[in-house]
Design a protein that fits this description.
Elements: E1 4-10, H1 20-31, E2 36-43, E3 52-54, E4 57-62, H2 71-80, E5 91-95, H3 100-109, E6 115-119, H4 123-131, H5 138-160, E7 163-166, H6 169-179, E8 186-188, H7 204-210, E9 218-222, H8 231-244, E10 249-253, H9 259-268, E11 275-279, H10 286-292, E12 295-298, H11 307-314, E13 319-322, H12 327-330, E14 337-340, H13 345-356, H14 359-376, H15 379-395
Parallel strand pairs: 1-2, 1-5, 2-4, 5-6, 6-7, 7-8, 9-10, 9-12, 10-11, 12-13, 13-14
Antiparallel strand pairs: 3-4
């Protein structure tokens, strides 16, 4: 088979965001340059206004908005079909609900080209999990309402897709449960890690000084500041942790709509001196910030897998997370990290305290975590599995 032309849809421009979805797009396309020609269509976010080519991949901006969720997604889907040359591609891949509008256009025009739907965290599952949280703010309640609407679009896209790709056995179960699709068209392709880039540094102290850190214990979070990441649990856990380890620093990497709410909660809890927000960091800064940590924390209430868990483990870091979604497929409980029951704030705090107080345990879990990632989760493995999916879709 000669080179195929693949169009990838993602509302956020992958070259300007650091999320797991965006990193997957960048890393897989980079590794498949000899097999295909790739064009990524993304919303006009983070200053993305002009087409560009990076490492042989074309990035094309499509009109959206960064202001009102979920209008950004709606505008993006409306503009996709208007882009010049978009119907010349051989196969299409949409991440989450980034391509439902274009899929409808293909069906309406009778264009029978393969459409791959890549589902990371199942939105219907995220919606149901959020509904169980009885202490949502008004803003979170509104956001979850729209999440329910998007879940319906994700279901429709999945049902009409040629092939569905997802990242864990957990996600397969939820896709079948909520979206009623045949398991035969679902493929599991886990996210990966660039293990040459994400690895332990020999000079950790220099990395810590880079972020204004000293010898104090350091707990790291990397991710979007959105409801499903459960950062309010981390703030609650921090109250207990600082009573035993007063100098503990909580590094927060990422941006999102909950920033002001988190600031308020931290201020109320008198934890301002313990939390440090770094915003969105460029990719080349992430390995260093992982190496600053004694432990990585992910208090998410829903995750299809959790790529940041893999990156942390690749950097020799033990992790603490809630035992939800596909997390227990990305972490070996008791071996590479500790998993606790969802919502167990005291247990989450105790797990973090156990690790930051025991250097030998940090080393043991860190070493096991890197081996685990090397054997199961690299971008080379992910890219080759995706290539097989593309070939199958084109063959159908």
């Amino acid at each position: 088979m000669g080179k195929f032309r693949l169009a990838i849809f993602n509302t956020q421009p992958p070259h300007l965001y650091v999320g797991g979805v965006e990193r997957r797009i960048i890393e897989t396309t980079k590794r498949l340059q000899n097999q295909g020609e790739f064009t990524v269509y993304s919303g006009t976010k983070a200053g993305f206004k002009e087409p560009s080519t990076i490492n042989g991949v074309n990035f094309v901006p499509c009109h959206s908005t960064d202001r009102i969720f979920p209008l950004d997604n709606w505008y993006f889907n409306r503009s996709l079909s208007k882009k010049e040359g978009i119907f010349d591609n051989d196969v299409y891949e949409a991440h989450a609900v980034s391509g439902y509008g274009f899929q409808k256009t293909l069906i309406k025009r009778g264009i029978k080209k393969p459409f791959i739907h890549t589902i990371h965290g199942v939105l219907a599952d995220e919606y149901e999990q959020a509904k169980k949280n009885g202490h949502q703010s008004f803003r979170n309640t509104i956001a979850n309402y729209f999440m329910g609407r998007l879940a319906k679009l994700e279901s429709e896209t999945a049902q009409n897709a040629t092939v569905i790709v997802t990242i864990s056995n957990y996600s397969v179960d939820k896709i079948k449960q909520f979206y009623k699709v045949d398991e035969s068209k679902i493929h599991i392709v886990p996210n990966g890690v660039d293990v040459e880039k994400f690895q332990p540094l020999s000079d950790r102290e220099t990395a810590k000084r880079q972020f204004g850190l000293g010898s104090e214990p350091c707990v790291l979070f990397v991710g979007s500041l959105i409801p499903r990441k459960g950062l309010h649990f981390l703030v609650e856990a921090a109250k207990k942790i600082v009573k035993e380890q007063p100098k503990t620093k909580f590094l927060i990497v990422g941006e999102g709509p909950l920033r002001k709410q988190l600031d308020s909660s931290i201020e109320t809890a008198n934890l301002r001196g313990n939390f440090q927000f770094l915003g969105n960091l460029k990719d080349d800064k992430l390995p260093a910030v992982y190496n600053c940590a004694d432990v990585f924390a992910l208090p998410s209430i829903q995750e299809g897998q959790g790529i940041v868990l893999l990156e942390a483990q690749a950097c020799f870091k033990p992790v603490v997370a809630f035992d939800i979604g596909g997390v227990n497929e990305a972490v070996r409980n008791g071996e590479t990290g500790l998993l606790v029951k969802l919502g167990g704030v005291d247990e989450f705090a105790d797990a973090l305290l156990k690790i930051i107080s025991d250097n030998a345990l940090q080393q043991k879990m860190g070493s096991a975590g890197r081996r685990f990632v090397l054997e199961n989760f690299t971008w080379d493995i992910c890219a080759q599995k995706m290539f097989s999916v593309y070939c199958e879709a084109l063959g159908s």
